[in-house]
Amino acid sequence: MLRVHRTNRRAGFSLIELLIVVAIILVIAAIAIPSFLKSKARANEASAVAALRVIATTQVSYQSTYGQGFAPSLDALGPPSGGAEPSTSAADLIDSVLASGIKSGYSFVYNAIDTDSDGSVDAYTVNANPVAPGQTGDRYFYVDQTNVVRFNLTGPAGTTDDPVPTR
């Protein structure tokens, strides 16, 4: 006669094995999450620099199209409402998100300057500041009518700060 031995062993993992797997996953997450957040901040910074370059380029288009100097505000570079035709108050040169002044974790502060008091904007400055410094970005950026994007690590950037390196 053939004897069959049965064991009471169940297939599966023990509690210790499951705890070890969970611990390994937590260690990997603890390493990966700070790197992800830092890369997200770097992406926000790259987006802010690109947006400042777009603003500087569209200012030249605005000036040549309307012949009255630079735009008086970011809104003036944005799209018109209700399907209206582009005009000096809504030139449709930048998207509505950038025209609102906040994009990709950065706040864009536009300052129009009338240097000779003739009513047209002769110069402008734009500061891009992180909404939550250290989280949405570490660097502060600046551009003016010279089209040179500059940065500062400690506070709002200005004309005396270093230019952002180009590739």
Concise structural overview:
By secondary structure, the chain is α+β, with helices and mostly antiparallel strands.
Mean pLDDT, to the nearest integer, reads: 91
Shape: elongated
Fraction of helical residues:
25-40%
Helix and strand sequence = HHHEEEEEE
For the biggest sheet, the summary is:
6 strands, antiparallel
Q: What's the end-to-end separation, in Å?
A: 83 Å
Number of helices: 3
Q: Regions with pLDDT < 50 over 5+ consecutive residues?
A: none
Strand fraction equals: 15-25%
Structural class determined from secondary elements: alpha+beta
Number of domains as seen in the coordinates? 1
Provide the spatial order of strands within the biggest beta sheet: 1-2-3-4-5-6
Q: Calculate Rg over CA atoms.
A: 27 Å
The strand count comes to 6
Explain what this protein looks like in three dimensions.
The protein is an alpha+beta fold. The protein has one domain. Helices cover 37% and strands 17% of the residues. It is built from three helices and six strands. Strands 1-2-3-4-5-6 form a six-stranded antiparallel sheet. The model has no long low-confidence stretch (mean pLDDT 91).
Could you name the key traits of this structure?
167 residues, 6-stranded antiparallel sheet, 3 helices, 17% strand, elongated
Task: Give the arrangement of secondary structure elements.
Blueprint: H1 15-66, H2 74-77, H3 96-100, E1 102-103, E2 106-113, E3 123-130, E4 140-144, E5 150-152, E6 162-163
Antiparallel strand pairs: 1-2, 2-3, 3-4, 4-5, 5-6
